[in-house]
Amino acid sequence: MVSSFHPFGAGKERYGDDRHPDLPWGYWMVSSGSVPGEPPLIDEDGREWGSVREAFWIDRLGLPSIYTGWMNGIMEFMASYLAIADGRFVAPEERVRDIFLGDGHLDQFFRAYLLAAGLVNDTEGRPTPEGRSVLLMLIATRTREDAAEAVGLDWILANRTAAGHVERIAAAEQIERRERVAARMAHRFTTDTIGGDPAVKLIGLRITKEIPVRSTLWTMTWPDGDRLARDRFYLWLLERIDRWDAWSELVTRGGARALTEHFMKLAFCDRFAVAEFDGSDELRSN
């Protein structure tokens, strides 16, 4: 079924009339670099591009070159979305919940954007022939860092953060080193996953009539799957490892809510302390 609208950045003919729909988008470009396959890449109009993704971003989607810094992340998200839509039928409720964290308006906007671009059809939202060729191109041009997570929901869940892949890996490695020290403590915080959500738990040693047992005294989860936010919070806790026994006692006396409220107070103290350290006069003037 041919859509009634004219996709922006596309010719009037359907993709496949003059392109091979089973090959990656941009296969017609020619490398003119000193090394075969290296940029610049020359398109059919003689224009030079630094990469196939750049040509797709600027020429096909009509997005400004000044925002190419956003290009890789958006292209990875687009690839994951197209892969999910191409692999199986996804019910609207599932798509909104898993991909867009329940934001139905964002789901509708992104689907409308891909529809206007001619990359998905206007019936089931499956990729068009061009959409599938774009997916092939995006998979073929992934960076080594992005390839660490599979295209699809795995990549979307792993990248729900403002941080890049390198920063997330560095935080995870730092946690692994410090957890080896914390493991010997009677009362300790630890990272975990609860129901698929990243979590931090406070585990305490309780003395019973029979034997000492470890039990969970307090937990906090990140339902949006932001593992980096969890890791940063845990690193914040590790910097205050000398306070862990006292915080465990706080839970024993006042319950889990008392510790949560205490963390909120400390978080705001840290926030203002950092602002003053940076020499900000804005807080002092208010």
Which parts are unreliable, with pLDDT below 50 for 5 consecutive residues or more?
1-6, 280-286
SSE order: EEEHHHHHHHEEEHHHH
Structural class from helices and strands?
alpha+beta
Question: Strand fraction band?
Answer: 5-15%
**Main beta sheet strand tally, sense and closure:** 3 strands, antiparallel
How would the global form be characterised?
elongated
So how many helices? 11
How many β-strand runs? Answer: 6
Into how many domains do the coordinates divide? 2
* Mean pLDDT, all residues: 77
Order of strands in the sheet with most strands: 1-2-3
N-end to C-end Cα span: 61 Å
Radius of gyration: 25 Å
Residues in helix, %:
40-55%
Could you characterize the architecture of this molecule?
The protein is of the alpha+beta class. It has eleven helices and six strands. The strands form two sheets. Strands 1-2-3 form a three-stranded antiparallel sheet. A three-stranded antiparallel sheet has the order 4-5-6. The longest helix is centred in the last third of the chain and has 22 residues, at 256-277.
Topology:
Elements: E1 30-31, E2 41-42, E3 48-49, H1 52-60, H2 71-87, H3 92-100, H4 104-116, H5 129-140, H6 153-158, H7 165-182, E4 188-194, E5 197-207, E6 212-221, H8 227-238, H9 244-254, H10 256-277, H11 282-285
Helix pairs in contact: 2-5, 7-8, 9-10
Characteristic terms for this protein:
3-stranded antiparallel β-sheet, 286 residues, single chain, elongated, alpha+beta
